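Model: Ready when you are.
Researcher: Fold this.
Model:
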Amino acid sequence: MSIHRPGRRAVLKSAAGLALAPAALAGAAAAVEAPPPGKPGDFDFLAGEWRIQHRRRPSTGAAFEAFEGEATCWTILSGVGSVEELRVPSRGFMGMGLRMLDVEKKVWSDHWVNARSGVVTTPGQTGYFKDGAGIFEADDFDGETPIKVKGVWDRITDNSCRWSQLISRDGGKSWEDQWVMDWRKV
C-alpha cells in the first residue's frame, strides 16, 4: 500500500490558499482583460492649434483655480509620437508633453517637461485608448507620500477634447480630480 504525499510546493500553495483547480486558474486569467494595443495615429486628434480652459486644484481638497492657456501640437514619426507645447501666458508658464508609442509593446507613454526645469518626468504615465478615451497611469510621490496618478483623454471630437488628471492617495480605491483641461481647436 502506497501513501500519496504531496510535494513541498503543493503543501506551501495549499497553506497559502493558492491551490486552485486548473480550470479556476484559466477562468481567472480570462477575466483579466488585456488593454487594447496602441497604434500609430492614436494621438492624431491632438495635432493643431488649441485654446484651453484650465481648472486646477492647488492642493488636495482645495477649490479649483480657473485660467486660460493655449497649445500647439504636432504628430511626429508617422503617428508614433505626439509633441505638445503648452503655454499659459497669464502665469508665465510653459511646458511640453511628449507622447510616444512603444511599437513593439504597443503601449503609449506620456511624459512632461516643465520649461522651468527642462527635466523630463520619469517614469511617465503609460496607457492605451479604449472606447474613445485614452487612459494613462503611473505610480508617483507627493513629497514622501506614494500616490497613483491617472491622466484621461476623453470627449474627443474633431474640434475639442478634454484632459483630466486624477490623484489617488489610497491605492486607487478613490480618485480626486486635480486638473481638468477643456481643449477647443482654433
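Researcher: Now this one.
Model:
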Amino acid sequence: MHNTRPKNLNLFTIHFPIPAIVSILHRLSGIVLFFLIPFVLWGFALSLTDDGFDMLQGFSSLFYIKLIIWIVFIPVCYHLVAGIRHLLMDIHIGTSLAMGRQLAIWTFIVSIFLLFLIGIWLW
C-alpha cells in the first residue's frame, strides 16, 4: 500500500485554531509556573523573618522589581483563566465549535484585564 498524500512537516505553515492556541499556551504557562516555584518559595521563606520581610518590602518599591513581579503574574493569570475554561469544558460548557472560540477569546480578554488590575495594584 503506497500512500501518495502530501506531508507537511513545516510547523510554521500550520494554522492552529484559537482554542488550540489557548490550550497550548495553558500548558506552557503551567511549565513556566513549575519553574517559578523555587523563586516563590525562596521569597516566602525570606519573608518569614523580620529582616527578610523588611528587605523584601524595600525591594518591592523599586520599579524593576515591580515589573518582574508583574511579569511573574502573566503566567499565573493566564493559567488561572485558561484552567477555568478547561473546567467549564469538563462540565460540557463551551464544547461546541462556536462557543469554544468565544471562550478562547474571552480567556485572552479576561487574562489581560486581570493583568491590568494587578498592574494598578502594584503601582
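Researcher: Key takeaway?
Model: Helices lie at 18-47, 50-59, 63-90, 97-122.
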